[in-house]
Amino acid sequence: MVLHISAQLVAEIWNEAEAAHPDEACGVIAGAIGTDLATRHIPMVNAAHSPTFYEFESGDLLRLYREFDDRDEEPVVIYHSHTATEAHPSRTDIAYASEPGAHYVLVSTREEIASRSEFRSFRIIDGVVTEEEVVLT
Amino acid sequence: MSNSGNPTVEVRIPTILRPYTGGAKLVNAQGSTLRDVISDLDANHTGLAERLLDGGALRRFINLYVNDEDVRFIGGLDLVIKDGDSITILPAVAGGC
To answer: Among 1.10.10.10, 3.50.50.60, 3.10.20.30, 3.40.50.150, what is the CATH number of B8-91?
Structure first.
C-alpha cells in the first residue's frame, strides 16, 4: 500500500505541526469516497492541548463527519504529530484507531532529529500496524 | 416495526461498526432511554453493545450524539429518548505518544 500525497499538503502538515509544538497537532485530509485521493485538508483543534495526547473535540468531530456525508467524502488521511517521540503509532494511537480505510500519518517534531525528517504513513487495522510508502505527487 | 410502544429512533453507524449491521449505515432501534436503545441495537446486531459500553458505561473513545448533542453533556445513557430522535455513533479520533 502507498500513500500518494502532494508536496503542498505535506508542507501544510509540517507548518501546522511546527506551529503547535510542543503540543501535538492533528487533522484530516478528506477525499471522495473510494478514490483514496487526499484532496481537502481540514486542520483540527487538538482539544487535549497536550504534548502527549490529541483528540478532536466531540462537536468538531460530528460536524466533520456530517460534512463528509454531505460531500460524499471520507477521511483519506488522519494525521497527528509526536513532539518528543518517533513518528510511529503509539499503543494509544493503535487502541484508538477506528478508520481501517485511512492512512494514518505521523510526523515527529522532536528536537533530536533534523527538522521535517520524519513523515511516515501507516495502516492500522484491528490493532495491526503496517507502514507504507509515501509518494509525493 | 414494533408493538412495544417505545420511541423509535434512527441510529447512524460508523464505518468500523458496520460489520455488525450487515453494512447498513442507518438502522432503526427502540427504547425509552439511550441505554434501552443500545440494548435493542444489540438484540438485532449482536455484539454492538460491547463495542459501545464497558461495564455498563459509555466507552471513553466512543462519542454518542442525540440530535447532534454529545450525550455526555445531556444525561448520558439515562437520557430519555423521544420518537424520531436521531442518534449518531462516532469513534473518537484521538491518540497520543
So the answer is: 3.10.20.30
Q: Using an 8 Å Cβ cutoff, are A80 and A54 in contact?
A: yes
Strands in chain A per DSSP E = 2-5, 26-32, 40-44, 54-55, 73-82, 103-108, 119-125, 128-136
- Tell me, yes or no, if A54 comes closer than 8 A to chain B by beta carbon: yes
- Residues in contact with A120: Cβ distance below 8 Å, sequence separation at least 6, in sequence order: A87, A88, A105, A106, A107, A131, A134
Tens place of pLDDT for every residue, chain A, 137 residues? 899 999 999 999 999 999 999 999 999 999 999 999 999 999 999 999 999 999 999 999 999 999 999 999 999 999 999 999 999 999 999 999 999 999 999 999 999 999 999 999 999 999 999 999 999 99
ipTM comes to 0.94
Q: Which residues of A touch B63 (CB under 8 A)?
A: 58, 61-62
Whether cis (ω within 30° of 0) applies to the bond prior to A89 is: no
Q: Do A62 and B72 touch (CB under 8 A)?
A: no
Give the Cα separation of A36 and A31 in Å (integer).
7
